[in-house]
Design goal:
Elements lengths: L7 H12 L19 H10 L5 H15 L6 H9 L4 H9 L4 H19 L6 H11 L5 H4 L6 H10 L9 H11 L5 H15 L3 H17 L11 H4 L5 H26 L1
């Protein structure tokens, strides 16, 4: 599977943790619209997502770019469009409403990297070329790129966006696996453990990754309307999905409310 040494007991612990996520994990990544965007927008997505809130910051900028430039679909078209600006920074300011020069330079470097991948193959479509690259690339290859601000999480997310069934070891994935093992682990450990555990369960790693992100990152992005509650394993086992938990809690609230009314009437 891979040359990274991982302990059997660690895989078992992560397997049990994934099981407790429930049956909704299967196929979860397929509902994310991110996977269906054009290659040009996927590259922008990958870089804008670095250390930024996805729903509140990234998505509006992607949607605006697509609306303003529906004709820019390939990475070569994106590279050509970016070259029409004096600097990558000015492109990012004007077209993505983002004033961050270092990130603009990172975007330029990633675009050049992806263009080089496409240039190597002429007899298949850009999408297929990038899909094959994503599937065959190894996580450790991010070190070869040596792109400032673009580490293993960004590299892995780029692979995922282009079709690889893998995970990006961002803070949410590392925290999830570390909690299961009750110790701090590295990004590469989290990556290989989640891949090995998902494979053992017959699950798509991308599905597991997306689900973990959904239950950990999204509540942080919208704390005003969503509260994340972690159920104990024995309680979680009694409910097949989030809907069942909500229905049970609504029933409890109704019973409590009815009890209050009965007490009021009795006192009267």
């Amino acid at each position: 599977m891979n040359e990274f040494a991982i302990a059997e007991e660690d895989i078992n612990a992560v397997v049990e943790g994934i099981k407790r996520l429930g049956p909704d994990v299967q196929g979860y990544g397929n509902v994310d619209p991110a996977w269906s965007r054009s290659p040009a927008v996927l590259v922008i997505d990958c870089v804008l997502s670095l250390n930024r809130k996805y729903d509140g910051f990234v998505v509006p900028r992607l949607d605006a770019f697509v609306e303003n430039h529906p004709d820019i679909c390939t990475v070569n078209e994106l590279a050509g469009f970016m070259s029409s600006f004096p600097t990558p920074h000015e492109f990012m300011q004007q077209e993505l409403n983002y004033n961050y020069e270092a990130q603009a330079n990172t975007l330029q470097s990633v675009v050049e990297f992806v263009c080089n991948i496409v240039e190597k193959t002429r007899d298949v479509t850009e999408e297929e070329t990038l899909r094959q690259w994503a599937i065959n690339a190894k996580p450790e290859e991010y070190q070869i790129l040596n792109i400032h601000g673009f580490g293993i999480a960004g590299f892995q997310y780029l692979r995922m966006l282009f079709g690889a069934d893998t995970t990006k070891p961002d803070v949410h994935i590392i925290r999830f696996v570390s909690k299961l093992l009750e110790r701090n682990i590295s990004a590469i450990e989290a990556l290989h453990l989640l891949e090995a555990s998902s494979e053992r369960l017959g699950l798509s790693v991308r599905d597991v990754d997306t689900y973990i992100w959904e239950i950990s990152a999204r509540p942080q992005q919208d704390a005003s309307s969503t509260n994340l509650v972690l159920l104990d394993p024995d309680v979680a086992a009694a409910f097949p999905n989030d809907k069942a938990v909500n229905e049970a809690l609504r029933y409890v609230l109704k019973v409590v409310d009815d009890g209050k009314h009965l007490n009021i009437n009795h006192n009267q």
